[in-house]
Design goal:
Keywords: Hydrolase, Magnesium, Metal-binding. The chain is of the alpha/beta class. Helices cover 42% and strands 11% of the residues.
């Protein structure tokens, strides 16, 4: 879709929002808002043409007759021009836009930006550069998506992590106390853990790995390990998430309470305060005990009952969220809710978060074509299971074999959803917060398109902005050391060759006297040592604006990606901080993945910098 087409789509969507909210629209086919009186003639003409979104000028590419564009994306849902009817509106088709396409496109883009400003609508490019942006790993044409499925917890419902996980932690410790564990004096510390870390059950550590699986930071109990300790402990092994008997990946914010409790109990275990009668005498046995205590907190019902009684204490309101889903529904998308939560909890949380922000007395159920509770993901994506229809407000169920529009169901499978909707594979986008249960398994087993919700992105984006000065200074110091180090290494090689009676690399280096050579090397060595003393603590502090122990969520070290970021890139086609961010992109958005920088790209980047003609593409 062109920039101008995107503007038209946004304007059409704005009109739809006005209609559903009860704002009267003129019956005239040439309706124009008075607020556009000062726009350009071209802009007014584009607004006027909006009237014929329908049978005369526009048509939509159907799912039965589509092609693939030059990026390999389906053209289903694309808006097309019916040139036969353009003369009715004083347009003669392609002749209206004569001239080199480069010039035409430049003019249209400029006018489209002006119109966006006149409409008071932010462009997708500006949204993409904000903390509320939607970021694309794999190109996705949202127009070709026929159905969008949503997880609920930490996806549609944004919990206050300190409140929700803090209460889960309290219930977990209560269960541990009843099992005989020494928990007195412990308190929930949400900064102790971030998503994307990995528990090493064998050594009782919590580690942060880079995209290759090399451990960059580690914590034993609540004590961060030194770089020396990390190298000695993990220098000869990689984190391998396939070895589930040892490694546990913190996929979701629901993992925070468990990880905090486990690391604190390791301290008590190392102090000898936990006897063998309470749990097996190793870190794996301790992890199992903590997991059992937290599982009881979730299944016994007290935790969720407390949250249902006072949802305002645990749920962060987002009034834009229902409107984003309403846009998608009105654009023809079938909306699905697929959650592992039970019926009563789902209904309470969704009513609290949605109903107050929906227009015309709509309820949350009116948004969704199919609602599936107690889905038991990831098995929902992996295998076929019985489907039950929820038939009463008390949650009573009966067996059924096919899901129907507007139905509320329990169990079932992803394959059943596809069969019921007659929609398959990459026609479905699934949105969730769990990198394994929601995103990985829906892609691996069903080839669904995927979106990850990672609410920490907003905090990380802001932390990165405020860290720019620190990181720029750090990079400058590292570059200076590299230059000094290059000279030192060349002089060291010249000295090595001199000691074996061989000439140095160049005649000038060969002719240096011994004193000049050694004095130069001594001076350079002192400079590098002083640079190391400056760089080391700055590297340690990098990312502390996000988390003082673990640094940034998406990074492992100054330049490399974290293991979490590698998982996101591999399995999530798009990712963002919250579902309501879709509101700023429209249901017709074409998400295009960005250029991926390679190691050897640095040569061409360096050359363009010398010529003074490039923008830094390495950031």
């Amino acid at each position: 879709m062109s920039v101008t087409a995107e503007v038209l789509a946004k304007f059409w969507l704005a009109q739809q929002r006005d209609t559903r909210c009860g704002a009267p629209l003129s019956n005239s086919p040439l309706f124009v808002r008075p607020m556009f009186a000062n726009t350009t003639k071209r802009a007014r003409m584009m607004v006027v043409c909006r009237c014929s979104v329908g049978d005369q000028i526009f048509s939509v590419t159907p799912s039965t007759n589509y092609e693939f564009d030059y990026l390999g994306q389906s053209t289903k849902g694309d808006l097309n021009l019916n040139f036969d009817h353009l003369d009715t509106f004083g347009m003669d088709g392609p002749a209206t836009l004569q001239g080199p396409i480069e010039e035409v496109a430049m003019k249209e883009a400029e006018e489209a930006e002006d119109l966006l400003n006149d409409l008071g609508i932010s462009s997708p490019s500006s949204a993409r550069n904000s903390s509320r942006g939607i970021f694309c790993s794999r190109t996705l044409n949202l127009r070709s998506i026929s159905a969008i499925g949503y997880d609920m917890d930490y996806t549609l419902i944004h919990y206050n992590v300190k409140a929700w996980e803090g209460r889960a932690y309290d219930y977990c410790l209560g269960n541990l106390r009843s099992m005989g564990f020494p928990v007195d004096g412990l308190a929930f510390d949400p900064d102790l853990v971030i998503r994307g870390l990995v528990i090493d059950k064998e050594k009782g550590n919590l580690v942060k790995a880079d995209r290759f699986g090399y451990v960059k930071r580690a914590m034993h109990g609540t004590r961060m390990l030194s770089t020396q300790d990390v190298s000695e402990m993990y220098g000869r092994e990689l984190v391998d998430l396939r070895k589930e008997n040892r490694w546990v990946f913190l996929n979701t914010l629901f993992s925070v309470s468990e990880a905090v409790a486990y690391m604190q109990m390791i301290v008590r275990y190392d102090e000898g305060a936990i006897s063998a009668e309470i749990c097996p005498p190793d870190y794996k046995g301790l992890y199992k005990a903590v997991g059992k205590a937290l599982f009881r907190a979730h299944v016994e019902g007290q935790l969720k009952s407390e949250i249902m009684s006072k949802p305002e204490l645990f749920v962060e309101p987002d009034p834009e969220l229902p409107l984003a889903l309403l846009d998608q529904k009105e654009a023809g998308k079938k909306l699905l809710l697929i959650t592992n939560s039970d019926y009563h909890y789902t209904d309470k949380m969704m009513k609290h978060s949605f109903n107050r922000s929906l227009p015309n007395d709509m309820g949350w159920r009116d948004l969704f074509d199919i609602v599936i509770i107690s889905a038991r993901k990831p098995e929902f994506f992996q295998m076929s299971r019985p489907l039950y229809e929820v038939v009463t407000g008390e949650g009573l169920m009966r067996p059924c074999f096919k899901a129907c529009k507007g139905g509320l169901y329990s169990g079932g499978s992803a394959q059943m959803v596809e069969n019921s909707l007659d929609i398959h594979g990459d026609e479905i986008l699934y949105v969730g917060d769990h990198i394994y249960t929601d995103v990985s398994q829906s892609k691996v087993h069903q080839l669904w398109r995927t979106a990850l919700i990672c609410q920490e992105l907003e905090e990380e984006h802001n932390a990165l902005i405020h860290s720019r000065g620190h990181r720029a200074t750090l990079i400058e110091l590292i570059n200076q050391k590299e230059v000094v180090g290059d000279l030192f290494n060349q002089l060291r090689l010249a000295l090595q060759r001199r000691n074996t009676g061989r000439p140095a690399q160049t005649l000038a280096a060969t002719n240096m006297d011994d004193q000049e050579l050694t004095e130069s090397m001594k001076k350079l060595l002192i400079v590098m040592q002083r640079l190391d003393e400056k760089i080391a603590p700055m590297l340690e502090a990098d990312g502390e604006l996000f988390n003082k122990r673990w640094g940034f969520l998406s990074r492992a070290g100054l330049w490399d990606k974290s293991h979490l970021m590698r998982q996101i890139e591999k399995y999530a086609d798009i990712y963002t901080s919250r579902v309501s961010n879709f509101l700023h992109y429209t249901p017709f958005m074409y998400f295009r993945s960005q250029e991926q920088t390679l190691a050897h790209d640095s040569h061409s980047y360096y050359q363009t910098q010398i010529n003074g003609s490039a923008v830094d593409s390495q950031c």
